[in-house]
Amino acid sequence: MFEVAELGHAVEKTVYKERSAQLRTELLTIQNRLGSYPFPVIVIISGVDGGGKGEVINKLNEWLDPRYMRTIALSNATDEERERPKFWRYWRTLPAKGTIGVYVGSWYSDPIAQRVYQKIDDPALQAELTRINQLEELLTDDDALIIKCWLHLKKDMQVKRLKQLAKNPATSWRVTDKDRQHLGLYDEFIGVAENVLSETSKACAPWLIVEGSDIRYSSLTVGQHILERIRQHIQHYENRLAAADQADETSKSQLEQYNLLDALDLSLKLNKTSYKKQLEKYQGKLNELSRHALEAKRSSILVFEGWDAAGKGGAIRRLTEAMDARHYQVIPIAAPTDEERAHHYLWRFWRHIPRAGQVTIYDRSWYGRVLVERVEGLAKPAQWQRAYSEIVNFEEAMLAHGIVVMKFWLHIDHAEQLARFKRREEISYKQFKITEEDYRNREKWDDYQKAVNEMIARTSTGKSPWLLVEANDKFHARIKVIKAYCECLEKMLDEPNK
């Protein structure tokens, strides 16, 4: 793969000065246009040590407006990052729509290094590359532009470059013991890198391989490539918009299925005496189990979805009453903020992934994409239809990290919901819970029920199934939730730590 590019390119200083001035003008112009488009640009600069990655990135920062771009330099993971799934550190640094993020040290760095140093084998590397391809496809499906540039040097050129840097007092600090160690592993590194680039150069995010022996050449080549890719992406985006305006936007899911919710027995009840007895039992059990989970550094993510007035808040309070407030957080999900709208819809959920031993409880969640956003037309059909696989992959990343993921759907019938609305209106401290929107949503009950059924069918997996909770009786619902979480923690604590 690396032999494709012609080596030995060099650009004269006078030519470089003229071309870089023109390129800077064009980059600033396209960057200004980019600010009005609803997608980010993610630039990955990677390659061989001594290939000029730092110089190229410095030139990009010189040519572009730094107010609307950011350079993200990631090296070894911190303790905080190691306690979360691998991609957490990348999600939290993704650029907002209309801006540019330049990564030096990306999601490719660790898998390549791990394989070169034989800390993982080929199947494990392939699994990492599959997850990377899934991440990039997820981002590009949401219109993000990913530009990947690999700066290559032949071995003799790398030796020469490192010697030049080490000889000059002004640059000797840039040559580290790790660089010298990497030089000794050059052949192994190139073999792994060729495999990685081959497996991850996709139509949605291809690699550009740039010969890096001449910094002026590589800087101009990368800058021109970024300019052309942004231009093309803007044009493709505008073409899609024009085509969408002429297309029929009423596409509907073809999945017709059995109504899972109708199978629930909503007559299930607990009397108050039995409820208090069981609540005391399971809250005591949860208190003990949550402390053991903290000691074992095993985290939990609990997702609560359900009809308006189904009792999600009451169930959450019975859980948190039994846990140490220092070790959990409850995240109520409402309409996204301007900052959240400027990122992929999963971004705001990645931000709250708990550290080791902690618990995050979501009162509504990422499933809004396939529920309210679907029913209310806030997401296009293509967006919510692909969200099922995006959500499953997201949850699989949590599970692979050893995090407990539990998903509760609290179900009540149409009549019970109306009765609860009326009761809330009569209680002064609950009146704030009722809005005109709650009543308006009742008119779309059938649409929401269809969406819920499809959500359950398409996102219940063996390791992360939906727990459907009969919630017409709040006592029964609360005990079912807290008991299920206790059982899940017991099972998790019996398993070896991942």
UniProtKB/TrEMBL annotation:
Keyword field: Coiled coil
Domain of life: Bacteria
Stored Pfam families: PPK2 (PF03976)
Any coiled-coil regions, as ranges: 272-299
Residue ranges annotated for the Polyphosphate kinase-2-related domain, each copy included: 12-233, 270-492
UniProt protein name: Polyphosphate:AMP phosphotransferase
Source organism of the structure: Methylomonas subterranea
Species classification: Bacteria, Pseudomonadati, Pseudomonadota, Gammaproteobacteria, Methylococcales
Gene field: pap
